[in-house]
Structures are given as C-alpha cells and as structure tokens.
Amino acid sequence: MGDKIITNRANYWKESKGPVWALAPMEDVTDTVFREVVMRLSSPGNLHLLFSEFLSTDGFCHPVGKDKVVHRFHVNDSELELAKKHNVKLVAQIWGTDPEKFYKTAQYIANETPFDGIDINMGCPMKNIIKKGACSALINTPELAREIITAVHEASDLPLSVKTRVGFKSVVTESWISNLLQSEADAVIVHGRIQKMMSEGEADWNEIAKAVELRNQINPKIKLLGNGDVMSIEESLDKVMEYGVDGVMVGRGIFHNPWFYNPAYSPSMEERIEALRLHAKLYSDSWKGVKPWAILKRFFKIYTNSFPGAVQLRAQLMETSGFDEVESILNDFMIEQEARRIASENE
Fold first, then answer.
1. Where is the DUS-like FMN-binding domain (predicted)?
2. The total number of structural domains that make up the chain
3. What is the pTM of this model?
4. Contact 137, 195 (CB under 8 A)
5. pLDDT in tens, 7-28
6. How far apart are CA 211 and CA 190, in angstroms?
C-alpha cells in the first residue's frame, strides 16, 4: 500500500506501568473542546488517554465527504498544550470496512495530526453502522477485522488499539478475543456487552476477565482494558484488582461527574457554573459556524445539578442559541445567588 510512516512517537501501551485510565470515544461528545474541559477538571496523573469522536474512513477517503468528517480530527492548540503538560495521550478513533481506506486514513493521522495513537472501532452497536458491516459487525468477519488491523499497523508506527465487545448477537469472547490477540494490536479494549444489548443491561465483567485469561495465555504483551458501567475511579481500581485488567475505559460515567478523574474533589456551585461557562466559551470559539449550538445543550445537565435553582437555570440555558446568552444567564444567576446570600446573612 506504500511506505510505513515512522513518527518515533512513544508507544504509551508498551511504556505504561500502572493502571491506564481512559475516556471513551463518544459521538458529538469527545471533541477537542470536551477533551480539554475534562483535562482541566482532572487531577494530573489520574487520566492517561483521551479518545476522539469516531471518524468514518469511507467519508474521509471520499473526495466530497472528507470535509464533512475531518473536523473530528481537530485538536485545539490549548488542548494540545494541556495534554503535553499533563502527559495525556490523544487517540484518534476510526471505523469502516475497507483495509485500504484504513491505511490511507492512518497515514494522514500520522502525517498531519498531533494524535499520539490510533484506535479501531470494532464495538459501536448502532444499527445504521452495523448494516454496513462495520464496527461491532466486524465480530462476524474476523478475517476482515485482522486485515484492517494489519493495514493500520503497516501505515505507521503509531500505537494501535482495538475497542470491541464480547460478541454480536451472542457472547463469543473466546473465539473473537483470541483472534484479536493474534493481531498486531498493542492493546484491546473490551466492553462487557454484546451488540444486541446496545447500552442496556449490565456489562458482564466476568467475560472481560475471560478475555484477560486469554490474553495471559496467547499474548501477554498486549494490554487489555475493561469498559462498562464504571462510575468512579475507586470502582476502576476495584475492577483492576478483581478482574486483572490493565486499566479501565469510562464512557457514560463522565456525564454523572465531569470531575470523574479528580475523585477527591467536590466542586462548589460556583465551580460548576464556571466549568459550564468555560465549556460554552470554548465550544463557541472552536465551532461557531461549523457545528450547531444544539449539540452543546446535552452538556448543560452535567454541570447544573446538586445545587438550589439548578433545574430552573438549566431550563433557561436550554433556550439559548449562543454563548452571549449563556454568559448573560449565568451572570444573572450568580448575582441573584449573591443577593440571596447577603439577605440570609442579614436576617
């Protein structure tokens, strides 16, 4: 397909010595803005890997489609600076079915972006994607899955991981994970659900433990992370101890607590408001005219909770159409809170 690109970027999978904590790739969530916010709210050393939104290799390699998807590879200078400061690695996740397109996309990542590594999506359960034979549907075509991994490995020397599930319509941990463990991947990230479950039901960490046992037998050099239903760093540590994984990837847990990776910290109302203001400002500066404002609204709830007036504040914010409106609402809310505090002290 061409010459392999040598970047000489460190292979964080081979260098990691303790548990690896990772934030999962999530569509319309883990863009450069949210990744930066999460880093700013995290305690240094408690977060190691941040994954991009997943990008279609078909779209990227299409002469017209590229412009519609390439924003998923955008990294703000402020995010990159923060990642270097905190030694957090940025990982680009890609999906598709054509090994040659994976190769071309991987070469672009190595040549034209600051990402530290590549992850192949073999786990997304969405119906419109699996109809194309991609993501978790690749569990049904293990030979093609291996060809894709090989193509990405041959494209560059960037660290390579695969995020997947324990099965498609039924659990096939032994055959499927064994197949991946014989590939060129540096790491496998295992979500403890099958495609059919989507995000419903409980993740089966016993199947993840089975994947760990297979790894120990087949290829001990490969790192193996677990994923599914983890809501705190403390719980992550418990999973490492109980199931033998090398680390934990968290997805929905970040929506319950944006300070997930700063476990000893309990943010005040003022800090929640300022985090929301930061997120909205970064989003406006980064995506105005590119992404719709409505995408940001899904984040309002993760900041506006656990304090008096949060529900009413959130209702107001949901009616906004830009940062200036958000800032005005937040300023009025803080003035009102201060007035109430002074009135209470004078009673």
1. 23-330
2. 2
3. 0.95
4. yes
5. 999 999 999 989 999 999 999 9
6. 8
